[in-house]
Amino acid sequence: MSTYLDLNLNLTDEQIALKEGIHRFAKEVLRPASIELDALASPEEVLASETFQRVFRQAYELGYHTVLISDGYGGLGLEPLEVHIALEEMGWGSAGWAIGIGVACFPAFMGGVVPEEKIIDEIITPFCENQDASIIGCWAITEPDHGSDMLMGGTPYFENPACAGRVRARKDGDEWIISGQKAAWVSNGTIATQALCYLNIEPEKGPAGGGIAVIPLNLPGVSKGKPLNKMGQRDLNQGEIFFDEVRIPAEFMLCDAESYPAMLDITLATANAAMGAIFTGVARSAYELALDYARERVQGGRPIIGHQAVQQKLFHMFTKVETARQLSRAAMIYNYNMTPPATQYSIASKVYCTQAAFEVASEAIQLFGGNGLSKEYPVEKIFRDARAALIEDGSNDILAITAGAML
pTM, whole model, 2 decimals? Predict the structure, then answer.
């Protein structure tokens, strides 16, 4: 049973059809696949599963891998509100799949921000035309010694040479040479064919001396670690990437240290807004499961939804879902339309919506009682998926410090 009521009375027929189509995909494909893959013993089994490969292909066939890319490059060309609708519905089906499908476009998406002809011809166009998921991108920013701190633009830390990233790039004629290691938390890390890599060019400037490069991962000197075995989002592949004197053409370096802070700001505003939308969907999924269960579960001689304590709990869960949607939509619509973005709003969206998803999932388990702890019911998995979100794409604690500095 769906309880989705959209308070936006101005949605077009096309936007409603988009929502219904992606919701159907989330319900019939993403959620069942997510539950199936979550039950596998190891991430190696997930990668070897026909289901894992099939879902990626289905998403690509429908063009969902291009939700962030304009139609001028061959993407879906969605408006910001439509991007939110798409990501919320995918998050409703599976947080892991929503992130994996979403981050697959990062090299092509950021390549479109500062388009070079070589980037368009060799990265963006082939990605948008791809329908068999043989081209998958990743966002390679986190390092073994650096995680959320890589995102702390505008703070004193950001210009401290002692805090510079370990993946380094140096210019050599018409090429850049890249060496270093990205950590096991790179989403799509071990399956990606190309990386949007955040690296350091001028370490004396600290993290501010960075650069952003698109790196094809079939180049000499690239190697990968094993897929990460983790608590939640087990349908999302993550793993290490190593660069050993990897050479890329000069055009594949999207920005230098001078423009890096601005490009990092765009990245953070885009990614955090997307996380807000995805985890609004996660919160909604937990709430709807709890609501349906409360209508069916009988205690005290009647369905538990007839008890005031349960009604009160459901009301507060409902309120968190609705406030998450309004905040995340507003942040995405504004920041996907404005340059420079008001990044503190995207951060607020990510922090609030992921926390809301975690709290709503926790309350859903409470309403399910002992059944909520059983893997027979999906709320246990949704709770684990939501817990991961308080750390990924920037730890909520560190993001709050970063946004606080902006304020």
Answer: 0.97
